Amino acid sequence: MKLVFDLGKVLLKTGSFRIGTFPTHDGKVSPYYIDLGHVFYDPEAFGLVEACLEKTVSELLDVEGFAGFCGVPQTGLLLCTPLALKFRKQLIYKTRGPETRIVGVVRPGSNILIVDGVSETGKSIGQAVKAIRESGGIVKYAVTLIDRLEIAKQELSRLEVDLRSFTTIREMSSILNDRMALSEEQEKLIDAKPEKI
Q1: pLDDT number for residue 167
Q2: Which residue positions in the chain have pLDDT lower than 50?
Q3: What is the CATH number of the domain that holds 13?
Q4: Fewest 10 Å CB contacts: which of 101, 120, 125, 153?
Q5: Number of domains within the chain
Q6: Which residues have C-beta within 8 Å of that of residue 168, sequence separation ≥ 6?
């Protein structure tokens, strides 16, 4: 709980988590915005984000052996790099766009963990899953820092990928509200689903 609160606080402080009206890529309006790109300018914030992801990855490593980590460009790749160094795993990534090209070596049958910052639709993670599998790798899990609780988990389960996240937007906003870092009204806004414009 404390780590989730600290994460929420640092995301608010760095402007990585904002409440308001924001257009989404799929033509909707969201009551909040998460852009983890801002944490990379603040070493303390970056360190906290990495500690949160490290906790989630460590729990998976206890039950699953991974040959390497795949960062989803661009944020996921930046978040994944310190994890690959810490856990001494190879680092690969899928190039941007719909093509299925992997940068790095995927040995046939190697188990790869996908890492991204925020899960929304699951589309980017799904493209990485496809690229790794087409290169002969195995993907069973994906990890994100925050799950927006949209459709990513359901979409990835169709690909037989279990999405794990350090926290969800609902859990983080609830803890921030309990500790008076967010108002009741702001928490209710976050809980609302994005609407069509």
Answers
A1: 97
A2: 197
A3: 3.40.50.2020
A4: 101
A5: 1
A6: 146, 147, 148, 149
